[in-house]
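Lab meeting tomorrow. Please check the following:
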Amino acid sequence: MANKIGRNDPCWCGSNRKYKTCHMAFDDKIWSMALQGHEVPSHDLLKNAEQIEKIKESCKINIAVLDYLDANIKEGMNTAEIDKIVYDMTTDMGGIPAPLNYEGYPYSVCTSVNDQVCHGFPSKDVILKSGDIVNVDCSTILNGYFSDSSRMFCIGEVSEEKRKLVQVTKECVEKGLEEVKPWGFLGDMGQAVHDHAFANGYTVVREIGGHGVGLEFHEEPWVGYNSKRGEEMLLVPGMIFTIEPMVNMGKVEIFTDPKNNWEVYTKDGKPSAQWEIMVLVTEEGHEVLCW
């Protein structure tokens, strides 16, 4: 990595500074970790200051849409209404819903209710009832920059059992976030998520995880939550990825609806919950960009 750029050449980050006074020591540190056998990010996974600011603008739309739903989602609403709200608000603010037509996905948002783990199809036939828990997963493109986050909503009178699942899943994200710091590892975050879920009697979905994001909808690295401290990719300032564990009340096994090859359910029919945030690794620690 460091040998490809001359000391007095312009730095790869676009700062117009000489490499030796900009990112040479930074690259040397990454290279030394690679020589020790650690997985390290390539330069194209690291966002510069200009890119980060443009990504934040996309995040503002995503947050605004979820804030609106937080205030307006209710019993009796069908999930197709949520899809229309997301499409209308996103486009009115100049954005594009990232899920729409992504790899053939036909809606602007994912609405996953109760035992749906993720990728739930909005539908006029899915009417939110008192006692339901629903994840709304919202993603936005603004001027070519991507944001992605999701929230859980409790509809009406939700059982204590379901309410605890939703709360513990949010705590899992918070526990994982505490481990996001430069020169640590993705596995530090993943184990913190896993340990908190299991301490509360839950399981964490293995097949589906988080991802890098910002310049594309889904970038490297893949982010799992059944990992170990000191393992997986090195965390480096400029990396942006999602923390979005899917936590099951019952067993870990899941299946995808064969009729549409999108909607994912728990195999035992018990509820699942997910919160998603988008985090930037900084020189000092981390910054949450989207929630």
